[in-house]
Amino acid sequence: MVVLGAANLSEWANFRSTASTSGWSAVGGQTRNPHDTGRNPSGSSSGSAAAVAAGLAPLSVGTETDGSIVSPAGVCGVVGFKPTVGSIPAAGIVPISPQQDVAGPMARTVADAAALYRVLAGLTAPLPELPLAGVRVASWQQRELPAPVAELQARVEQLLAAAGASIVPTEPEPAQEPSGPFADAEFEALVAEFAVALPAYLAGRPGEHPRSWPELLAFNRADEIELSLFSDEIFGRCAEIDLADPRHLQARQACNADATRSLAAVLTDCAFAIAPTNSPAWPIDYGVAEHNMVLTSSLCAITGAPSITLPAGAVDGLPLGISLLGRRGSDLELLGYAAALERLLPPPSFPTL
Fold it and tell me: Distance between CA 327 and CA 318 in Å, rounded?
């Protein structure tokens, strides 16, 4: 394998500000969607997805805390696999949360993503060939989906049914359905875990650089680029957080319990679940929170379970992805089902600039 380079990503993995712009960093500038350079590639593993989508590399590696692999892969029209947390060594990953952080592959096909995953995870077992006939598939029914996204899910369900799968409509209880990566309990837990994990990581890195929250905040204010487009209020919270406050641990326990119950409810008697990955790529707009995304990553992100997105359609040349959600430890099985679904889907044909 020839390693071509390091990809750009969203500044601090989109966890410096709630109004950050995916794909922008002070070091790399703005990563653009290769299907329309005025639109966002999503994030935080923006460059990893865009590089594969633009044909610059056949494989890439991203990292995910909540959506940072599957969302940019879906928006850029490539395969993105978020493995079970802990199945791949996390050494070297700049952390947000050891509870949720994991690396994973992006590629043009499921087989390529699976090949890279097996290397990263040190596995020798081959990708299983799994038939879809007779398999029960949970269809995660969400409210208020954009029409093209809902239509995409319906088309995928028709293809699965034609292949002999049984489609089981399911809907998480409203109280358990995460509203996205900044749902209250998850956000509070991530802030507390970030406050501890990042200084510990920086303390172990060689060279001259900020090693504490006050030093990071001072660096941002001394640099003319860092705060030019959005703030660092999450860093400010981390600097002031009371880690002895039991509410932080309670927030982690609450979001874990809700997500675990919700994912179990979705997957009842089913091999895997399907859900739309993303809405069409949105225009690049700095300083505005990105609220126009379809957010189906949180159940697997919080529980540490695997998920994978496949390119499944397009709106005006902008890719739409479909996600498969599995249970913890079912990585190769989920990849096998994704490969079977991939054979049913029309080959991606997006205009790449």
Answer: 30
